[in-house]
Amino acid sequence: MTRGKKNTKSEPIMRSAVLFVNFFLIITALYQLKPASRSLILDVMNVSELPYVWIGSALTLFIFIAGYHRLLQRFKRENIVLGTALLFSAILIAFRFVFDLGGIITATALYIFVDIFGVVMVEQFWSLANSIYSSRDGKKWYGIVGTGGLLGGVAGSGIAALLIKYTPVTTPDLLLVAAGIVVSIAGLTLLMRQLGLYQTLETPGPSLLKTNHSNMFGLFRNNHYLFLIAAALLMAQLISPVVDYLFMQSVAENYPDREARTAVLSLFFSALSAISIAVNVIATPIILNVFGILTGLMVQPLVIAATTFGFGLYPGFVSAAVMKISDRGLAYSLTRATRELLYIPVDTLLMYQAKAWIDMFGYRTFKMLGAVFILVILQWSPIDQNILPLNLIVILACAIWMGILFVLHRHYLHKVSSTNMQQT
Q1: What is the reported pTM?
Q2: Measured in Å, how far apart are the chain's first and last C-alpha atoms?
Q3: In terms of CATH architecture, what is 211-418?
Q4: What interhelical angle do 334-342 and 224-254 show, nearest 10?
Q5: How many CA atoms lie within 13 Å of 297's alpha carbon, on the beta-carbon side?
Q6: Of the CATH numbers 3.40.630.10, 2.60.40.10, 1.10.10.10, 1.20.1250.20, which one belongs to the domain with range 1-209?
Q7: What angle do helix axes 317-324 and 224-254 make, rounded to 10 degrees?
Q8: What is the pLDDT of residues 60-119, one digit of tens each?
């Protein structure tokens, strides 16, 4: 479809508006599925079995990405987006009717599917955005487009909570709600194609799912600064499953009824998204501009350590929720913004390769290692949990994380200083 000169100015606005809605719908659907999948799995298994599910999820995702890579080489991006949306909606509908039969296999498969759904739909979206925005347009519009996802997190879980509490909708029915939203994403994809908004650049941005990770260990081994960035970020991923385990344990103990549990988890995820937005908009600029990057780096491990200590003193759902928010709420806001600053002194190609490895391989590998670590402490070793409780392990891990951050900050200052000297 040829573009008329009249439409040149309005096209970026229209494209960004449609992408805003698209990303909003993706995250809305995801946050319908997150509370449902977590509530349903607690119906059929003990919390002590969850680490096995997390390990299975990471391994399944690695296998899925390998197959998905081949699809990206053979088909256009918009066709893959459309096909994925239709396939995922069909799978969600199938899951809903299979749930009438119940069973641990169905609940586990859904949990793993929701993890795949989140990774693939979000990566597809940004990969597509990279292919139709120039670098200049991206800087101008990505903040607005990304806000759609933040609002989707609040809306998706909020709607789920309202549906569970005030309508006859049950937890498995949320899968049908999400399927309907995903079908609307497919419709929006067709609309974008019809309006000619899929005009791709000649050299589109690369996809994280297409990155070759085979030589990445050499890259980190030879670059001390990148190694420290990876170590700090992956330390956070090692801690995250332990925090999640303690949170899910508290949810299971305090909310044995499935529908009440789903409503509470939905409200929790909605609050988590809202707090992330508030931190991103209000706290992040103040912390980074007034106190600097070291403070921005240190806030998350300090707050996690403090809230975990509080959870150890006063265990309960509220303290567990605060601990979980200190982990994920800060990871999605302040820590993410600070992380981007760390990459500024890095060569562009190296930055892309490092981020791709960390985001798609490192995060999931270390989350899997975190799950293995929980199993070692709680099930595979003779260590008494009263002597070495999980909350104490989180605090010790935060101390190591902060030590890495101190060293990383020194290297960051050296890098910035060297870059400034080269430019003068």
Answers
A1: 0.86
A2: 47
A3: Up-down Bundle (1.20)
A4: 170
A5: 24
A6: 1.20.1250.20
A7: 160
A8: 988 887 777 677 677 777 788 888 899 999 999 999 999 877 789 999 999 999 999 998
